[in-house]
């Protein structure tokens, strides 16, 4: 009996000395995102790699991209649809980055909210250490036509999906990428959302969002999209029309300053975007001007979102002027 007691206390001592591993556990507390009991600040990038001449996402240049991201101080990748390849998630984790994993509402039954198949993905990858947040939708509030003209239909589906994720995976919070500051309807119906992402385009001065958010919610928030493109449709202020990397760099510098100056309320940013996307506005074999996005009049400095010019690197992965701005902000703020 005495020997059994000794063994019991010896094992108890081991438990005390070596508590259960919390590697990868994510939670929220006091407006903060907490990873393994440390505050996590998102220094992120929106990532949808499509090669020149193509129209579909591919990860064939992932290692090159991850090296550039690490150089720029990026710690988080935000993707708009599930990454199905485990080896891709493995490589992201091995590089020391985390992923905000997005689910769409209607993706023809493939890991989407409408069919409920998104839960299959959550169950499969909920223990993968690369996962930071599960994200539901991307600025769907700009598209009531997708939900029979009534945003309540989306918010109800969003909230029910978030609840199901919580029941399936208690170790990762749920977010959504809302277009601009959510209104009272979104907040009330989205009671299961843990972290509010906001796609914010308020010229190069997004700091007003933080005070507005603090007045309506105590939950964590981050900019799920923010940034500027490198093409001026018109000459405005000191920026000339045409390709203009200086305009993009200056705007991004101001935006990132606002993000880092408001860490008591905000939990970071996912800049839009990693690479120029030639597939968006015309011939995918060439870089076209044009393109349109809802509520985009706040895009600096011409109010016009030239959709193929948003990368911090070009489609061939050569660095644009803004790359060094991002690197200085993200690395200096380590």
Explain how this protein is built.
The protein has 334 residues and is α/β, with parallel strands linked by helices. The protein is built from nine helices and 13 strands. It has helices at 2-17, 62-71, 86-94, 118-125, 151-168, 184-189, 208-214, 245-261, 321-332; strands at 26-29, 32-35, 38-40, 42-46, 76-79, 98-103, 131-138, 174-179, 195-199, 221-226, 231-232, 242-243, 266-271. The strands form three sheets. An eight-stranded parallel beta barrel has the order 4-5-6-7-8-9-10-13, surrounded by four helices. The protein has a three-stranded antiparallel sheet with strand order 1-2-3, with no helix packed on it. Strands 11-12 form a two-stranded antiparallel ribbon. Strand 8 (174-179), helix 6 (184-189) and strand 9 (195-199) form a beta-alpha-beta unit. The radius of gyration is 21 Å and the shape is globular. The termini are far apart.
How would you summarize what this structure contains?
The chain has helices spanning 2-17, 62-71, 86-94, 118-125, 151-168, 184-189, 208-214, 245-261, 321-332, and strands at residues 26-29, 32-35, 38-40, 42-46, 76-79, 98-103, 131-138, 174-179, 195-199, 221-226, 231-232, 242-243, 266-271. It has 334 residues and is an alpha/beta fold. The termini are far apart.
- Strand order in space, largest sheet: 4-5-6-7-8-9-10-13
Poorly predicted runs:
1-22
Order of helices and strands: HEEEEHEHEHEHEHEHEEEHEH
Average pLDDT reading: 93
Question: What count of helical segments does DSSP give?
Answer: 9
Whole-angstrom Rg? 21 Å
Helix proportion of residues, in percent?
A: 25-40%
Strand content: 15-25%
Ends apart, CA distance between termini:
54 Å
